[in-house]
Write a structure and sequence with these properties.
By secondary structure, the chain is mainly α. The chain contains six helices and two strands, in the order ααββαααα. The protein has a two-stranded antiparallel ribbon with strand order 1-2. A hairpin with a 5-residue loop joins strand 1 and strand 2. Helix 1 crosses helix 2 (15-23). The longest helix is centred in the middle third of the chain and has 40 residues, at 78-117.
């Protein structure tokens, strides 16, 4: 049997995370001694590894709890667990596409900053300069004449 500290060392989790996961019911095989101290057997360590893996994939705690509960029900829930994983995968793919868009935007910005640093372009990134350069980009800057529209 392992203590919280030992379980943390074995799994690479923090002691806080080990306690948090057990308190959330994500480690159903955790035991407690007469002093109410958590004790982890090999099955509990396996649950912690599984929870860690799911958490690292970005899965929310509530969904991990649902997954744990389905596992405890047995093989009759394999289809439900598969569906849960597919839904999580789809959500992760959406986040990946968003991240790709963020990176593309940042690549454009860094090119712009490089042009500014090498004096190939005026500083269009600082709102306090926009009035001076508005004539260059009148299609994208706010126009005071548009206030009453």
């Amino acid at each position: 049997m392992h203590t919280v500290k030992e379980a943390a060392l074995i799994t690479g989790l923090t002691e806080h995370a080990v306690r948090f996961y057990t308190d959330k019911g994500l480690v159903p095989s955790v035991q407690r001694n007469k002093n109410n101290i958590r004790l982890f057997d090999e099955e509990s360590i396996n649950w912690l590894h599984g929870v860690k893996c799911l958490k690292q994939s970005g899965m929310p705690i509530e969904i991990i709890k649902k997954y744990v509960d389905l596992c405890l029900e047995g093989d009759s829930t394999i289809q439900q667990r598969y569906t849960l994983m597919m839904e999580h995968k789809e959500a992760a793919l959406v986040k990946l596409e968003e991240a790709k868009q963020h990176i593309a935007h940042l690549e454009q910005k860094t090119i712009l900053y490089q042009d500014i640093l090498e004096n190939r372009s005026p500083d269009t990134t600082n709102p306090s300069n926009w009035e001076k350069i508005q004539h260059m980009h009148s299609d994208v800057f706010y126009s005071p004449s548009m206030r009453n529209v």
